[in-house]
Amino acid sequence: MKETLREIWKEILELEELPDENESFFDLGGNSFSAAQVIAELEDRTGKTAEVADFYERETIAQFAELFD
Amino acid sequence: MENSIVGILGCGGYIGSNAAEKLLRNGVRVIGGQRSDKELFSEYDNFSRRKVDVSVKADLEAFIDECDIIVNCVSPSHVYGKLVRDAVISAGKILVDPSDASYEKDRSNTEGICVASAGYIPGLSEFLPYVAAKRDFDTIERSVVYQGGFDGCSAGSFVDMIIGAGNEDFCGDAYISKGNIAPLGSDIRKTHATPFSDKKVIFKPLITCDSQKLAEVLGSDEHYFFCTYDDMATLSFFMRLLVDVTRHSKEEAADIIENKLNERIRTNKEFGSQVPLAFLYMELTGLKNGSRKTAAYKVCLRNVNRVCGYFLAETVLAVLRDPSKLHSGFNYGFELVDAAYEKRILDEIGDDEYIRFEEMDTADRLSIGDITNKA
């Protein structure tokens, strides 16, 4: 899950490299709309979903991935 | 242009019918264009109607040919808006539009004579702070607008709203600082009180072309516009629809949005069943004779369609009265309307609706830092 999230973040946030799992989504330039884009992409790739609000509770990939443990 | 003929496409719709009623009441000759054979305004001698399918070129051209000013209330506008706009411009007639959805982000190249942003949002939401700023302030330092609430609209209008919000003219999580768009994050977990109901709401910042224009004409150092949402589930629902707009063609997105709207209405009894209520809050802080002051507009409506239609009609009346105010290209409706309309509008709203303007203590103004992550 973490690897999938890293790939999606890189794509949506247009990062040059895969993000570290402990970097904050918002520090990397994310906002509520890009959060919704990540969720849509996550659903397409894994069938799993989340809420936009989850990004504010869990700003890093490591924290976000715990939702799906 | 006193004897001009005003053609209203979509005359039987929510906004078009209200605009037509007010124009007819004011003695304007109106031709209503509609897809159906439905009888309308038979009590008015100054009204006639035509059956028009705007997707049929000959139908549309024949209708435009009969009129001097064409008011475009055809829904859905994401399908027909540009079609009507181009036909009106080709015919050399004046186009008046409640929204600005059919125009490019860069409006400097708009052909013909178009009056847009002449509805509720955009439209009245710019007109009210505009007249207050000109009347009561020498300079504006900060302007804040937020809007929200629920008001029934057709599925077509809902789709138009989402497609409009998902296009490049909108900039989410932003405000205007000294003429430039700047990022403005907000913690959307927080809810905030409004003067309109006991229910707290989520504030979500965004900037539109009209926000930029309003900030420009006000000369605001800082301009904020927020949409409000009842709860996180509602905000998430809208955000996901916006994502659909960016991932699909307009036609595909329209189907997806309408299906998701119907699904939500079916599965969530609260959605769409609230007492219709829409609100606008506008707050200006600036200087008058060297002293700082703050004033707020509070607008609470149960029938947005009526107010939107009436403001649209008021824009048309302004054009008829003084066409010299129009210039070639894109005209903003809120800049054309007579400032006296601010008072007259009180006669047009219902008993349980209100538009209030009041000065307030600057210390009590909305705290942007409380809403956003901005210090």
Structure, described:
The complex is a heterodimer of chains A (69) and B (375). Chain A has 69 residues and is mainly alpha-helical. Chain A has four helices and no strands. In chain A, helix 1 crosses helix 2. Chain A is 51% helix and 0% strand. The mean pLDDT of chain A is 90. By secondary structure, chain B is of the alpha/beta class. In chain B, 36% of the residues lie in helices and 26% in strands. Chain B has helices at residues 14-25, 57-66, 77-90, 124-136, 155-165, 209-218, 232-247, 250-267, 304-321, 333-336, 341-344, 368-371; strands at residues 5-9, 29-34, 47-51, 69-72, 94-96, 113-116, 139-150, 171-172, 174-177, 180-183, 202-207, 222-229, 277-288, 291-301, 329-332, 354-360. In chain B, strands 7, 8, 9, 10, 11, 12, 13, 14 and 16 form a nine-stranded mixed beta sheet that branches. The model of chain B has no long low-confidence stretch (mean pLDDT 90). Classes of the chains: A mainly alpha (69), B alpha/beta (375). Chains A and B meet through helix 2 of A and helix 7 of B.
Write the layout of secondary structure elements.
The complex is a heterodimer of chains A (69) and B (375).
Chain A: H1 2-12, H2 32-46, H3 54-57, H4 61-65
Chain B: E1 5-9, H1 14-25, E2 29-34, E3 47-51, H2 57-66, E4 69-72, H3 77-90, E5 94-96, E6 113-116, H4 124-136, E7 139-150, H5 155-165, E8 171-172, E9 174-177, E10 180-183, E11 202-207, H6 209-218, E12 222-229, H7 232-247, H8 250-267, E13 277-288, E14 291-301, H9 304-321, E15 329-332, H10 333-336, H11 341-344, E16 354-360, H12 368-371
Parallel strand pairs in B: 1-2, 1-4, 2-3, 4-5, 5-6, 6-15, 7-12
Antiparallel strand pairs in B: 7-13, 8-11, 9-10, 9-12, 11-12, 13-14, 14-16
Helix pairs in contact in B: 1-9, 4-6, 5-8, 7-8
